Amino acid sequence: MVRNEDTVPMRRPDPDSPEARGSSAAVLPAGPPGTGRAPLDRRRILGAAVEFIDRNGLAALTMRRLGASLGVEAMALYRYVPGREQLLDGVVETVVDELYGDPDVHLRAAGGWQDFLQRLAHGVRRIALAHPEVFPLVATRPPAAPWVRPPLRSLRWVESLLTALVDSGFTAEAAVAAYRAYSSFLLGHLLLEVSQKGVQISPEDAPEGVPDTGTDLSQYPLVVELEELLSRDESAAEFEEALENLLGRLETVRREGRVPGE
């Protein structure tokens, strides 16, 4: 029987992807087209660094190459960024700050704590999808304080999240536990998602999106039979379902006034 391709439903684009959002990264471009060399400042250097990593990967980033992309010598960058480590911290700050420009993410929980967490989660996922090569940095750079958990690197967002929970009836202990569970969910899911797109999470990792052509699958007949299903990208639906489940568990925590695990 020949499948009629006209009857195959079109897969909708991932609603959090740059394509579905109608734009790509929201970082400041390295220089406006047709206007010549733009004045050099820290903000422009960081925007160019994000663009460079998006195009070439983190491993390719050096001060010399970044300077060349801006049309300056590497030494000119050190006036604004003391070194590569400070540059990477600035890159993380730049992409996390995109949350402030996301119209669907609110700094205050005007629609309730669940709506707040749901909007924030999708905002962080949009950052991961717009900058998959940068996102491992968001997960691994040293935080502003030892108790700040990635991927919410901003103290302002952590303050907003905790305020939303406490103002909605969470005890202090339950609010902290919810913050930790929420951060762990985002970090684990989104690191796995970018890894499946071929991004190296660490220098020692082999990206999950790169197939191992040397593996003999003949001993795994069910894996071979289900390969098409296993290969489907259901990331958006899985993220939404897992987020809904987490919010449901946290509502139980709020209602019962307990800490998860007690």
TrEMBL record:
Residues 1-19 have a biased composition (Basic and acidic residues). The keyword Transmembrane helix does not apply. Keywords: DNA-binding, Transcription, Transcription regulation. Residues 62-81 bind DNA. Residues 1-38 are annotated as: Disordered. Residues 39-99 form the HTH tetR-type domain. It comes from the Bacteria. The keyword Heme does not apply. One of its GO terms (biological process) is negative regulation of DNA-templated transcription. InterPro entries: Homeodomain-like_sf (IPR009057), HTH-type_TetR-like_transc_reg (IPR050109), HTH_TetR (IPR001647), Repressor_TetR_C (IPR004111), Tet_transcr_reg_TetR-rel_C_sf (IPR036271). GO terms for molecular function: DNA-binding transcription factor activity; transcription cis-regulatory region binding. This is Transcriptional regulator, TetR family. It comes from Geodermatophilus aquaeductus. The lineage of its organism: Bacteria, Bacillati, Actinomycetota, Actinomycetes, Geodermatophilales.
